[in-house]
């Protein structure tokens, strides 16, 4: 007798289908059950032009969560950076697998790197976090380029460069890798230049809180260090009272002495989109062994950043 298939709710976009497909395979392996993809059309897919008004990428998450709550699907996969920082009681993030490359990358014409871009170059990004840090970099390195707000999926955004409308676009490495376009990358941005979004490169596998059997099975795909890192990053975001559209970057990583992991470092940045002001700070602590300890790391950093004026820099809204 074959076991009943698990239903994975997914958006239809290429990126969502790619990451859902990869997770489906992994879940099938740990559970020994077939996994079937159930496509869910979100309001955000139907109405892209309204995305700004209705509040960014959260709409994509909401439709998947409704399908979970209605019992139409057994689990869903989200890009962690698109997940709101508040967790609904009836749902749990049962697994956060090992994170992909968290960096942002440049896709530019003529294989150019960021520092090769000529004066007046036009760089596409709809993210205030990327704008703030790119413009701050330009100011401190005597460069002069213009950030141009764009939106759309990965292929659309790269299309601006291949069609010659823009000199470069900035995207997440993880997204490009997942849709098989990593060859298009012309420059990997150091996280010292552009700190990624909290949770960037990580996935969250979510199911209903009452599904103890599935929670236990999915837990096998969880990577505790990735979970600790993204929990600290998202705790910073929450403590700054910022949302997924805020100009906030955060990255937690491990500091090792040889092979021995010593500490977790959490770096954070917030700035104005013109790059004239950035608040950058980092903190280190013992590698968090509990959810509470990871949350505390993020809150500590937020306290320091707020003391340096971070709150005044978060008024801007965009995607
Ligand atoms: N904001 C959209 C989004 N949400 C998740 C990813 C892919 C990277 C990831 O999973 O963190 C992207 C594309 C991008 O920012 O270039």
Automatic annotation (TrEMBL):
Keywords: Porphyrin biosynthesis, Transferase. It comes from Streptomyces fungicidicus. Its cofactor is dipyrromethane. NCBIfam families: hemC. This is Porphobilinogen deaminase. One of its GO terms (cellular component) is cytoplasm. InterPro entries: HemC (IPR000860), Porphobilin_deaminase_cofac_BS (IPR022419), Porphobilin_deaminase_N (IPR022417), Porphobilinogen_deaminase_C (IPR022418), Porphobilinogen_deaminase_C_sf (IPR036803). Tetrapolymerization of the monopyrrole PBG into the hydroxymethylbilane pre-uroporphyrinogen in several discrete steps. The keyword Transferase applies. The porphobilinogen subunits are added to the dipyrromethane group. It catalyses: 4 porphobilinogen + H2O = hydroxymethylbilane + 4 NH4(+). It holds the Pfam family Porphobil_deam. Binds 1 dipyrromethane group covalently. Transmembrane segments: none annotated.
């Amino acid at each position: 007798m074959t076991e009943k298939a698990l239903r994975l709710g997914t958006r239809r976009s290429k990126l969502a289908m790619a990451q859902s497909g990869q997770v489906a395979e992994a879940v099938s392996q740990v559970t020994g059950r077939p996994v079937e993809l159930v496509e869910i059309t979100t309001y955000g897919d139907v109405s892209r032009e309204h995305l700004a008004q209705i509040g960014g990428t959260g709409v994509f998450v909401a439709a998947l969560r409704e399908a979970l709550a209605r019992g139409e699907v057994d689990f869903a996969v989200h890009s962690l950076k698109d997940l709101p920082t508040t967790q609904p009681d009836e749902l749990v993030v049962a697994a956060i697998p090992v994170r992909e490359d968290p960096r942002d990358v440049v896709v530019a014409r003529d294989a150019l790197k960021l520092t090769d871009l000529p004066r007046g170059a036009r760089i596409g990004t709809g993210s205030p976090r990327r704008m703030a840090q790119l413009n701050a970099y330009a100011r401190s390195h005597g460069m002069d380029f213009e950030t141009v707000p764009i939106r759309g999926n990965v292929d659309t955004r790269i299309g601006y460069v291949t069609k010659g409308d823009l000199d470069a676009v900035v995207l997440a490495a993880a997204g490009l890798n997942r849709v098989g376009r990593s060859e298009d990358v012309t420059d990997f941005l150091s996280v010292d230049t552009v700190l990624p979004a909290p949770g960037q490169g990580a996935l969250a596998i979510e199911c209903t809180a009452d599904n103890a059997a599935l929670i236990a099975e999915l837990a096998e795909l969880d990577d505790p260090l990735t979970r600790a890192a993204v929990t600290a990053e998202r705790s910073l975001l929450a403590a700054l009272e910022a949302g997924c559209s805020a100009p906030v970057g955060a990255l937690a990583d491990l500091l090792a002495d040889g092979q021995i992991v010593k500490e977790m470092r959490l770096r954070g940045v917030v700035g104005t989109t013109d790059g004239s002001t950035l608040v950058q700070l980092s903190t280190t602590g013992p590698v968090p062994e509990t959810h509470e300890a990871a949350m505390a790391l993020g809150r500590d950093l937020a306290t320091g950043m707020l003391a340096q004026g971070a709150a005044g820099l978060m008024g801007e809204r965009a995607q």
